[in-house]
Design brief:
With about 130 residues, this protein is α/β, with parallel strands linked by helices. The protein has one domain: Rossmann fold, CATH 3.40.50.1820. It is about 40% helix and about 15% strand. The chain is built from six helices and four strands, in the order H-E-H-E-H-H-H-E-H-E. A four-stranded parallel beta sheet has the order 1-2-3-4, with helices on one face.
């Protein structure tokens, strides 16, 4: 998260980008950082490629159980909930044959998105 904050501050302070003209995007596991980062920013659009629903959901998929629970850690990067606090236009793109982040996770993030303007693009066979 710190890298995202540093880059964002560089864009605003050094390059004079306005928040409202920035697009926040993330890919795969990076979508969790993008959603978490976006929740308290005023930006133009959010674009997510193959978003994961949460770390617990990914642990369940990869290992058959959420690994964080073994260490008594709470769920984190819960995009399926955090996306409910983001009202900026949102585009989600996900392949229906994704072997890393299950397609249903992208659908769940989309369903929970609070944006009035939102779109889901399913890429067949990807």
């Amino acid at each position: 998260m710190q890298f995202a904050e540093d880059f964002y501050n560089h864009m605003r302070e050094k390059l004079r980008f306005e928040e409202k003209n920035m697009i926040i995007w993330g890919y795969s596991v990076g979508t969790a950082v993008a959603v978490e980062f976006a929740k308290d920013k005023d930006f133009s659009d959010l674009i997510l490629f193959a978003p994961l629903a949460s770390r617990y959901d990914m642990g369940q998929k990869m290992l058959g159980f959420p690994l964080q629970k073994l260490f008594f850690l709470p769920n984190s990067f819960v995009s399926k909930d955090t996306i409910q606090n983001i009202s900026e236009p949102t585009l989600i793109i996900h392949g229906n044959n994704d072997t890393v982040v299950p397609f249903w996770q992208g659908e769940l993030v989309f369903e929970n998105a609070a944006a009035e303007k939102k779109k889901f693009i399913e890429i067949d066979g990807f």
